Amino acid sequence: MERAVSPVIGVVLLVACTVLLSATVGAMVLAYEPAEPASTVVVSGAVDADGNELTLILDRGGPLDTRELSVVVEVDGEPLETQPTVPAYSQSGFTGFPSGPFNAGTDPEWNRGESASLTVAKTTNGPQPVPGSSVEVRIYENDLPVATVEATAE
Core-most of 3, 63, 99, 149, by most CB within 10 Å? Predict the structure, then answer.
């Protein structure tokens, strides 16, 4: 009779272990909270061909620390001879002072809804945006791409 009891006890223990393991895995799955997705940064822009002004607006994501940003500007697929430095005061290849968080004299935190602008110098930087030009601005944070803005100069 002892032989008949051993398989039954073994099956009961195996079922108990399976139930316990299933309950543990189930509890872990239910308690798991996925990490929040990385913030997607969306920037829109406009180009005033008459004034050579590039205006960028942080539409979604951020805030961004402009001290960690770099900006690359291309007009009709050709990069500007002198690329902007942000944040900055007056700089070679650009006229006047950058506005918003691109200006070194302001808060370097670029928040949603805030605009920043640069004016490309007409005589010392090129190519110049003319009405209808395709202007692409790529924004990098610590050398990693954050956003790309494509605009048509008006």
Answer: 149
103 DSSP assignment: B
| Residue 73 and residue 126 in contact, taking contact as beta carbons nearer than 8 Å | no
In 10 A of CB 139, how many CB atoms? 21
- Using only C-alpha atoms, the chain has a radius of gyration, in whole angstroms, of 29
Tens-binned pLDDT, residue by residue, of the chain (154 aa): 556 666 777 777 778 888 888 888 877 877 776 655 555 889 999 999 888 899 999 999 878 999 999 999 999 999 999 999 889 888 889 998 999 999 999 999 999 999 999 999 998 888 999 999 999 999 999 989 999 999 998 8
Domain 42-153, CATH 2.60.40 — does that match? Answer: yes
How far is the C-alpha of 7 from the C-alpha of 11, rounded, in Å? 6
